Amino acid sequence: MAFVVTQACVDVKDKSCIQVCPADCLFEGGRMMYINQDLCINCGACEAVCPTQAIRFDEELDGDESMFVQVNEQFFEGLDIARGGRKMGLIEHDAEFVAQLPST
């Protein structure tokens, strides 16, 4: 069980989630935020402040949204994330699915 950032975050990146996360597990990609499941403590603080309701509990994802579990995982493949999201800052990279979405 984990929290996941979904498509509602693409090209929005409000970033209020980063400020409230005690585990520093949210990372800013080029077009959206991503949650690192290895760092997340499932507290739900990020979900409560997301203005677009893009952050959802993985077991509550329906239909096409369920693919965002893998989208969040793919973002971190091959990245050296020795530091948390606030310390890393913007990472000019996105998961392939997000990178290929048309701009909104």
Describe this structure in words.
- The chain is 26% helix and 12% strand.
- It has 5 helices and 4 strands.
- It has helices spanning 16-20, 45-49, 68-76, 85-88, 96-99, and strands at residues 3-5, 26-28, 33-35, 55-57.
- The strands form 2 sheets. It has a two-stranded antiparallel ribbon with strand order 1-4.
- The radius of gyration is 12 Å and the shape is globular.
How are the strands of the largest sheet arranged? 1-4
According to DSSP, the number of beta strands is 4
How would you sum up the global shape?
globular
**End-to-end C-alpha gap:** 30 Å
Proportion of helical residues: 25-40%
Largest sheet: 2 strands, antiparallel
Counted by DSSP, the helix tally is 5
- What proportion strand? 5-15%
Instruction: Give the helices and strands as they follow along the chain.
Output: EHEEHEHHH
Name the poorly predicted regions: none
SSE-based structural type: alpha+beta
